[in-house]
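Sanity check. The docking grid for nicotinamide-adenine-dinucleotide depends on where the pocket ends up, so I'm generating a full predicted complex first rather than guessing from homology. Inputs follow.
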Amino acid sequence: MISGQRILITGGAGFIGSNLAKALCEKNTVYVVDDLSEGFKENLSGLPVAFFKKDIRDREFMRKLFSTHKFNCVFHLAASFANQKSVDDPALDLDVNGVATLKLLQLAKEFGTKKFVYSSSSCIYGAVDGAMGEELKPMPETPYAITKLLGEQYVKFFADFHGLDAVSVRFFNVYGPNEYPGPYRNVIPKFFALARQKKPLVITGSGEETRDFTFVEDAVEATILAAEKGTAGEAYNIGSSQETKVIGLANEINKLAGNEGNVQKGERRAWDHISRRLSDNSKIKALGWAPKTKLGEGLKKTFDWFEQNVKGVSNG
Ligand SMILES: NC(=O)c1ccc[n+]([C@@H]2O[C@H](COP(=O)([O-])OP(=O)(O)OC[C@H]3O[C@@H](n4cnc5c(N)ncnc54)[C@H](O)[C@@H]3O)[C@@H](O)[C@H]2O)c1
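Predicted complex below; grid placement will be based on this.
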């Protein structure tokens, strides 16, 4: 485990970033930059981190931050999230996910950052029937997928050309505590919000579609491992390599929330052509990672977190 480092986490008040901050803050000095456009200060409560409510596009602030703290390690998670939001506002998506990522890499290079980890997404693969391995040709289908791939390509350029020790991690649907439901959020918090209100879970498709769900603590472990042992310029899938049907997920969530059988078919989202999503996780496994949390166990932990933290929410 990384220790004794000065670490910057962008987007550290968000879902994955706050779980990463929790894992790293005991043995390191952790700084978080987040504009709270999607994240929550509460996600960091009680953690010994220095928090800055700032936009990563604020160039003057970011330059000052890097020059003052000379981070050893940067985990770049801030992003305009995700596919639907990028369809609604592709220019914001490019500005935050594309241009600001490039500027961050420039600062990392200028101020001698030793490790840079960029959070990419499985959506860069597009529609693939079968396991997605890192060697597949990317086929991004939304502005978000395009800019996530763009970020990866900048990471590779900075690694190959400037010698920056930078890697990308491609998250497959991560779930767990600290992800609040909202209009642009993932299926699991949306389903929990509906199930707890005893409303039907709306399935945007046939329900036979599959996704590859990874519990956030496992995803965080893999991300830290990629920082420690990943090869510069490379990308690593972070997924459980388990396929789960959306209807099966809905049933499990309904069972936890006492909302059995309450599902409803909704219209498929126009941009969503992904009927199967399954990671080939052998590359990150070769570095020594294995997902520990089974879906049932992770969903129970997520449900317990909802019960304690999410009061009277809307379903987004
Ligand atoms: N959650 C997943 O399943 C998943 C899957 C694939 C990829 N990812 C990627 O992982 C990263 C983290 O995802 P997450 O689920 O934690 O998302 P999140 O939205 O919870 O976290 C992102 C954080 O970035 C902050 N942010 C957004 N724009 C900002 C800006 N301009 N300046 C400063 N902060 C800003 C938001 O307030 C938020 O707290 C993202 O880069 C995302 O693209 C996540």
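Relevant for the grid: The first helix runs from residue 15 to 24.
Also worth noting: The first strand starts at residue 6 and ends at 10.
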